[in-house]
Amino acid sequence: MLSKRIFETEFTAALNEELVKREMTVPELADLTGIPVSTLDKITLGERDPRLSTIRRIVAVLEPVPDQFIAIIAAKFLLDILEIHDVDLRGTTYGIRKYSANSFEECIIAAARAEKEGASGIICAPILASIVEKIVDIPVGMLRPEQSVVSEAIKAVVKRIG
How wide is the angle at C-alpha 153 spanned by C-alphas 152 and 154, nearest 5°? Predict the structure, then answer.
């Protein structure tokens, strides 16, 4: 993901990696962004630092954000392992936005914020879902742990007990 990589490395390196991954040429990127080929050449060769407006145009083309999104409210460690970025349903792409929350109050605030930012729906823990449904006017779904997850948690607690 380009937007994440640009904070981990130099923009030039992240952009060049993304172009290789997409098998895209600089002229092709220029056509899509409206940025002159000469400017993009200088950026990809590291001869010029891009302006913020240029970075935004590049990221907007290489990582378009769907207009509609589903908010997932959970603890940061759970959001970090979530690998779903978008979902296609009946011809509509829904992006996934993650809202980190570590307390009951943070979850309520995150739900209100997600709705305000235009979420099409919210997914959260079962203990919160009934309350969030009373606060927002969009569909709310529940994260339900699988049996294997519950079993692993029980085993971990038993080890700590004895």
Answer: 90
